[in-house]
Amino acid sequence: MTSRRRPGSRATMRAARYRTAVNSPVAPSPTGPLHQLVDAFGITTVLLAAVDVQGRLKGKEFDAASLVQRLRSGGLSPEMCGYVLATDLGMTPPQSGVASWESGFGDVALLPDTQHARVLSWLPSTALVLAEPISVGLPQPLAPGTVLAEQEQRLAGLGLTAKVGVETEFVLFEGTARDAAAVGSRGLRPAVWDNRDYALDQPQVVREFSRRLRQVLAEAGLPVEAVKGEGAPGQIEVTFPYGPVTAACEQHVLFKHAAKAVADEQGMTASFMAALPGGVGSGMHLHVSLHDVDDHPVLLVGPGFGSGLSELGEQAVAGLLTALPALGPLWAPYVNSYKRLRDHSFAPTLLSWGRDNRSCAVRVVGHGRSLRLEVRLPGSDANPYLASAAVLAGIRHGIESGLKPPVATRGDAYLDREAEPVPQSLAEAVSAFETSPLVGELLDEHVVAHLAAVARLDLDHHAAAVSDVELERGLTQA
Q1: Phi then psi for 49, rounded to 5 degrees?
Q2: Is residue 124's pLDDT more than 70?
Q3: What is the pTM of this model?
């Protein structure tokens, strides 16, 4: 007598294989060709995604077995509406541009990288396939990954490569995003009620969140370097190891996806806004090192690997201080981003640099081979691909032009009267971005027009909105 398999048992078996794979003492790699991950981990769902201009994953869910079969047969030519490369945070469609009302919102082709799929261990039996937006058979020039790749190629033309380590802060709140929508975001409470910077006595909910986040990231092949409490209530900082720039950016996008999923799983919300009520600011610090064709570090003086900057290192610092103010929309893309840049907030307000000085925009930190430049301007809301592109463009400008930096700041950089201020608002930053001849030299003109248009969508949204502060001040007194 033949047994009948009950409905759903195949999915149950796949889920069991997934649990066995991730818990095995000799677990298979969580990255590799898609079909191998499907078999090894019992993957049932595949997210086919591209990174949008906001630094988020956008795409579609596929049944894993069906997708593998379609890819093998050559029957899948994935596409998505091109407006995902041009919308603001709220997915507001643009009036004109590559995919807009003017152009009819055409599709953009996607080139899936099925050989480097990744298990997303924070979602049940799910893997991710990243896809590159394509235009006329070439990488879409307005896609964030393409903008970064262009800067990497130009830096390689100088015989240099960069490595990046990302350090990001975010705030953990009690209650899910659905709760926030129901009661209003101001009704959410931080998961920690006081300053727990570097504290090792975090509340249980925070310890469990941290443990779970580290676990799922490690299982996905994305191990973190460290997790720590930060200076604001509910604020957490996560640091990742160094690596190639594009890989570091991909890792950061997936980390944000995981942090939000784990928070929701535990009835909480992880917010990556740059500025929150009460003066809370969250940054995304980019630790950058430069290497020659033989992978030798070139930021430091001489073969003895001392602690001083080389001439090339000083040129890189000068280029960052010169170029980053005009590239604001790449590292501070929203109206809210500029509310983080306040005096004595650990976010820079002046374009200064210094040795191990956290009040500067560019901090020279580390010793020997670990000497690096920490760029402290971007907030946690920045797209890492675009922020990194801005940093590499600035470094390249300094080296190509042989620039010299100002005198390094000692002590409180917020009091440095010789340093120029950072952009004060998104409107100011967009204006400089569109009119600066330097920006035209560093970026393709179509990229400049595109990113300026995206930034103006955020400006338009805020210009039409009535804030809580306006109501408090004017409802009865105006």
Answers
A1: -140, 155
A2: yes
A3: 0.91
